[in-house]
Amino acid sequence: NTKKIEVRKVEISLRDRILEVITNPTIAYILLTLGIWGLFFELSNPGAIFPGIVGGICLILAFFALQSLPINYAGLLLMIFALILFILEVKIVSYGALTIGGIISMVLGSLLLFESPLPYMRVSLVVILTVVAGTALFFIFALGFAIRAHKRKVTTGDKGLVGEEGVARTSLNPAGDVFIHGEIWKAESDRPVKKGEKVIVTGVEHLTLKITKKENS
């Protein structure tokens, strides 16, 4: 006899609605990708701030969602490895080798990331191909812009860089990284330079700056 049973409607809270959305495999995958984009853009353009904040939030939400989903850790590691390769592309001018490796790693990671026999617990191939294609275009464009910027700096040679001041991003003894004109450059110093010290450009050789430590820095 169910006549005396009281029926009560329980509304889903805003928090639960948000959790329901971000734990959707497709949304979690897109958040992970946006996080990678944001961090890459921030590292390649230091001081932009906004992309780094958005990227960090997206990654945190993505990792929160992934802990509730049936993921394949090999796929997740490949996605993380892709992020590492993209970050290295910012620090090492590989002329696209690291970017290509990152895209391949991302494709494999995307295909392996979710492990479930249930269709609604996986990301569709169409979404994966769309996201990977967008990622490839994003990084190819960013890479092309970076290479053109470096070549333009080198073409101007002494007129554009010699005499300019910068900051050592790493210790140089003699080689390391410096930050000049909003960009990270490979550099060689005529004497040891500590991280954070100011430097002055004395010459340019290919894509490597010749620098010296600024006195009283």
Automatic annotation (TrEMBL):
Q: Where are the transmembrane segments?
A: 21-41, 47-66, 94-114, 126-147
Which species is this UniProt entry from?
A: candidate division WOR-1 bacterium DG_54_3
A Gene Ontology molecular function term for this protein is: peptidase activity
Alphabetical list of InterPro entries matching this protein: Membrane_assoc_protease (IPR052165), NA-bd_OB-fold (IPR012340), NfeD-like_C (IPR002810), NfeD_membrane (IPR056739)
What SUPFAM superfamilies is this protein classified in?
NfeD domain-like (SSF141322)
Q: Which residues form the NfeD-like C-terminal domain?
A: 159-213
Keywords recorded for this protein, A-Z = Hydrolase, Membrane, Protease, Transmembrane, Transmembrane helix
Q: Does the keyword Transmembrane apply?
A: yes
GO process terms (BP): proteolysis
How this chain sits in the membrane, per its record, is:
Multi-pass membrane protein
- Domain of life (superkingdom): Bacteria
Instruction: Kindly list the places in or outside the cell where this protein is found, as annotated in its UniProt entry.
Output: Membrane
Can you name this protein? Serine protease
| Phylogenetic lineage | Bacteria, Bacillati, Saganbacteria
Entries under Pfam families matching the protein: NfeD (PF01957), NfeD_membrane (PF24961)
- Return the GO cellular component terms, semicolon-separated: membrane
NfeD integral membrane domain: from which residue to which, for each copy? 26-141
